[in-house]
Write a structure and sequence with these properties.
- This protein is of the alpha+beta class.
- The chain has two domains: about 170 residues, no CATH class; about 80 residues, no CATH class.
- The chain is built from 13 helices and eleven strands.
- It has a five-stranded antiparallel sheet. The protein has a four-stranded antiparallel sheet with strand order 6-10-8-9. A two-stranded antiparallel ribbon has the order 1-5.
- It is elongated, with a radius of gyration of 20 Å.
- The N terminus is likely disordered.
């Protein structure tokens, strides 16, 4: 999800973190009629439609400019490029370029959603998100990516000893290693500077600075982070546990009101929701 108050995502963290919405986006249909919506659900979104009771959820703060007006029923939409604001984007660059993440959706080109409806609503107007058939979905081990544990066993780093989270890693990269840029090409260039090499030797005298970026790729690998790559049915089966998820395919974004209307039509009641 898009973090705002960090204490919601990581114990012992109190900084305010805000990320930008995805922009620009490609919207192929605004204010769909219900008949069109049902037809789409039964065809190219049939796999997600089969999991209608447990959709992915996105709280959309800028929905008026990106997915239509307050009366929008649903939109068929494709993600653009997302970029963090007021926080560094290291993890996105690492995940996007890591050889361990081949075949995964790129974080920078993905919708960030939650399996938990009540959690997603804190971030804006609620939309049920139905990915296109065949979509691969990245799944975080916890309710937010900021809770992910980052382990760098080759270095003597205090936050790793305390087994803390991604936010601590971000702070370490920026405040201790002085990575001013979170673009991968510039990160690689910075890691080759004499100043960086001196700082990294403070954590391990025998560590070769040229191995730093490959080490980060390994630290963010699925084996270390417990990220999972799943299909639509597998993600639906995770309910009721809370997970942040991401995917880069086209999807059908349906307002919560529309979802409740269809739910009532399909299952006869929404009383237990």
């Amino acid at each position: 999800m898009v973090p705002r108050v960090a204490e919601e995502f990581c114990v012992k963290c109190s900084e305010i973190i805000i990320e930008a919405e995805i922009t620009p986006m490609s919207v192929s249909a605004i204010d769909m009629q219900m008949e069109q919506l049902i037809k789409l659900l039964k065809t190219k979104y049939s796999q997600a439609f089969a999991q209608f009771k447990t959709p992915l959820w996105r709280g959309w703060s800028s929905y008026r400019s990106e997915v239509g007006t307050s009366t929008t029923i649903a939109v068929e939409i494709t993600p653009g490029t997302r970029k963090s604001e007021n926080t560094s984007n290291y993890y996105t660059e690492i995940l996007d370029h890591s050889p361990y993440m081949k075949g995964w959706p790129k974080r920078s080109e993905s919708f960030i959603c939650s399996t938990e409806r009540d959690y997603a609503k804190d971030f804006g107007k609620l939309f049920a998100m139905f990915p296109a058939n065949g979509t691969k979905i990245g799944v975080c081990p916890g309710f937010d990516i900021w809770t992910t544990k980052i382990r760098l066993p080759d270095l003597d780093v205090e936050f790793i000893k305390e087994d803390q989270c991604l936010l601590d890693f971000n702070r370490w990269m920026h405040q201790s290693l002085y990575f001013a840029d979170d673009d991968m090409a510039r990160m690689i260039k910075h890691a080759a500077t004499p100043g960086f090499q001196k700082r990294i030797h403070d954590y391990n005298m025998n560590f070769d600075a040229k191995d730093f970026i490959p080490m980060l790729f390994k630290a963010f690998s699925p084996a270390r982070t417990e990220f999972k790559l799943m299909n639509i049915a597998q993600v639906a089966a995770l309910a009721p546990t809370k997970h942040e998820v991401w995917f880069s395919s086209k999807c059908l974004a349906m307002s919560e009101k529309t979802w409740l209307t269809l739910y009532n039509k399909l299952y006869g009641s929404t009383e237990h929701l």
